[in-house]
Amino acid sequence: MFEPSLSMSAMRSPTDGPSMADSLPNINFGFDDLRDRMARFTDRFDKFIDKGRKRVLEERNHFHTNVAQLQEDQRLRKREIESLAQKASSHAQAVDREADETAEMHAAIASIAQQRDVRARHRDHIRSEIATVRKHIAQRVTAQQQHARDLDAQAQSNVPELEFWQSYLCMRIEGVGIADRLKFIFSHLDEKNWGREAWFDLDMAKSDYRVVSVKPRVEIEGIERCVDKLNETRDLGPFLKGMREILATTMK
Fold first, then answer.
1. Residues 115, 119, 125, 128: what is their CA dihedral angle, to the nearest 10 degrees?
2. Which of 13, 92, 102, 185 has the lowest CB atom count within 10 Å?
3. Separation between Cα atoms, residue 190 and residue 170, nearest integer Å
4. Residue 205 to residue 45: CA distance in whole angstroms
């Protein structure tokens, strides 16, 4: 309730009677209660603002923390991605190297296989040649053995004949220090000098005989005819007789 103000009371004369204001009812507007309620509201509002400010600050700090964490995670992911990319590149290079090495190994294996095939063919060819050579050697050994048997038989049959021709042709036989070679020496060729001699060297190492050297020099055609006939007939007597005639003709 409102109390009458002091100014109105002072202005009122003692002699005045009751005024209209005095007759008005006292009204209480409750300013104290309002002031207390406003104070409580202000306190609650300040607390609400402070709490909101703290919550906003906490949320901002939490947001910054989350951003920093996200940035750190992003940085770590980036490093992991770079590491994985480097590993993938290294792995790709290793795969390429292995592919190159595999290709080189296959090429080397193919080359070795080719060399093996070439060597196998060469080995088979050599074996074939060895078999052919062995066959030829066996044939030659057989032929030489047969030739040796023929020579032995001929030598046995020629001994009496040689003794006859040595006496008949004034001839003697000497060795020359080489196997299968004989020197036939003739005398009584020159009527003016019966001691003058002529000779020829006969090589009998092979199946075809040949005259190696002659003294004095004679025409080769006549010697070749005599040797060819000897190789054809294996008759030594006519050969020696023919050679004496050639030497005698040359010394006349």
1. -150
2. 13
3. 12
4. 145
